[in-house]
Write a structure and sequence with these properties.
Layout (H helix, E strand, L loop, with lengths): L13 H4 L3 H9 L7 H15 L8 E6 L5 H11 L2 E3 L5 E3 L2 E5 L6 H12 L14 H10 L4 E5 L9 H18 L2 E6 L3 H6 L2 H6 E6 L6 H12 L12 H11 L3 H18 L25 H5 L5
Parallel strand pairs: 1-6, 1-7, 4-5, 5-6
Antiparallel strand pairs: 2-3
Helix pairs in contact: 2-12, 11-12
Bound molecules: adenosine-5'-triphosphate and magnesium ion.
Adenosine-5'-triphosphate (ATP) binds next to helix 4 and helix 12.
C-alpha cells in the first residue's frame, strides 16, 4: 500500500503510516496534544493572565479538575508556548512561566526549593541546612523575569496542618505582592477549600474547571481527533453512539482513561493486522486493564465554571 491511499489520515500523519509496526507503536505511545474546546478556553484565560501588566493586584487563577483530566498536560503546553531562549547557544533561558510542583510538605523552605528546581537552579538535597532564602528566590525570579508561577498539585497543601496551610497562604500573598507575579494554582476539586479560608486570596483567584467529559459532540470530536493522529492504515469508524457511550461509561469521562484505552486498542490493532479501531476493538478486556470510572460527584460532572 502506498501513502497516497491513506487519505483517511491527516497529511502530516500519512508518512508515519508507512513505518514498520514497532515504530508506529512507539509513535502511539508518545505524548501528543489534541485540542478541545474546554482546553482552548482555559488557554485563553491563561494567556490573559500572562498578558496582564504587573500591578499590586494581579489576577490569579485556580484550575481544578479530577485526576487525569489533563491539567498538567495543558499547563505544560502553556509553558511551551511562552518559553524564551536568549543568545545563539540558547543556553541563557528566561522563565516567564515557571511550572512548579507543590511539595508534599507545604513549608516555606520546601516550597522555595521546588520553585528553584522548576527554574533549573540546583538546590542541595539536605536543604534543611541550606534552605534557599527569600532574598535568593526573589533575585532568581526577577532574573528569569518570571511573570506567572504555576503551582501544580496545589491540593498537597491540604495534607498540611491548619497552621501550615495558613502559612502557605501567607507565602502566596507575599509572592504575589512582592514580586507582582500572577499565580496559577492547579489541583483536584478539593483544592478550592485551601483558598476559601483566605478572603483576600479567594477574591483574587478566578476559578476554572476542566470538567469530566459527557457524552456529546465535544467528546466525539476529541476521540476522533485523537484517533486521526494515530498511524493506522485503515479508516476507523469511532464516532458511533454505541462506542461513545462505552468510552464514557468505562472511563467516567476522564481523559487519561480515554487516551489510554484508545492507545492500547490502536496498538492491538497494529499487532493483529486489523489496522482500525471500531467498537469490537474496545471489547478486548486487555484494553481496560486498570482503567476504572471514578465516582464523581454530580456537580463536578455537569457544571462547568468556564466563561
Ligand atoms: N489535550 C490532550 N491531548 C492528548 N492527550 C491528553 C490531553 N490531555 C490529557 N491527555 C492525556 O491524559 C493524561 C493525563 O493528563 P494529566 O497528567 O495532564 O492529568 P492531570 O489532570 O494533571 O491529572 P492529576 O490531577 O492526576 O495530576 C496524559 O498523560 C495524556 O495521556
Ligand atoms: Mg497533574
Amino acid at each position: 500500500m502506498c501513502p497516497a491511499e491513506w487519505l483517511h489520515l491527516p497529511e502530516d500523519v500519512r508518512p508515519l503510516a508507512a513505518l514498520g509496526s514497532e515504530e508506529r507503536i512507539r509513535h502511539i505511545r508518545a505524548k501528543r496534544w489534541v485540542d478541545y474546546p474546554h482546553a482552548d478556553r482555559v488557554m485563553r484565560r491563561l494567556n490573559e493572565i500572562y498578558a496582564q501588566p504587573r500591578s499590586e493586584r494581579m489576577e490569579n487563577m485556580l484550575l481544578i479538575g479530577h485526576s487525569g483530566m489533563g491539567k498538567t498536560t495543558l499547563v505544560r503546553k502553556f509553558e511551551r508556548t511562552h518559553t524564551v531562549r536568549v543568545g545563539n547557544s540558547g543556553t541563557c533561558r528566561l522563565h516567564p512561566i515557571v511550572v512548579m510542583l507543590m511539595p508534599h510538605d507545604p513549608t516555606g523552605p520546601r516550597f522555595f526549593a521546588q520553585l528553584l528546581k522548576a527554574i533549573g537552579v540546583p538546590t542541595i538535597d539536605s536543604f534543611e541546612r541550606t534552605a534557599p532564602r527569600e532574598s535568593t528566590v526573589l533575585r532568581v525570579l526577577a532574573e528569569v523575569q518570571a511573570k506567572v508561577i504555576v503551582i501544580d498539585e496545589m491540593n498537597s497543601v491540604l495534607a498540611g496542618t491548619a497552621r501550615q496551610q495558613r502559612l502557605f497562604l501567607q507565602l502566596l500573598r507575599w509572592l504575589s505582592n512582592e514580586l507582582r507575579v500572577a499565580l496559577v494554582g492547579i489541583g483536584v476539586p478539593e483544592t478550592r477549600h485551601a483558598l476559601l479560608s483566605d478572603d483576600q486570596l479567594r477574591n483574587r483567584f478566578m476559578n476554572l474547571e476542566l470538567p469530566a467529559w459527557e457524552n456529546g459532540e465535544d467528546f466525539s470530536h476529541f476521540v476522533t481527533r485523537l484517533v486521526w493522529s494515530l498511524p493506522l492504515r485503515e479508516p476507523s469508524p469511532v464516532d458511533s453512539r454505541r462506542l461513545m457511550k462505552m468510552l464514557i461509561g468505562r472511563t467516567g469521562g476522564i481523559t487519561l482513561g480515554t487516551c489510554k484505552a484508545i492507545e492500547r486498542a490502536a496498538i492491538m490493532a497494529i499487532r493483529s493486522g486489523a489496522e482500525r479501531l471500531d467498537y469490537q476493538a474496545f471489547e478486548h478486556a486487555e484494553v481496560w486493564d486498570g482503567i476504572e470510572a471514578p465516582v464523581l460527584m454530580a456537580g463536578h460532572r455537569r457544571k462547568s465554571r468556564l466563561g
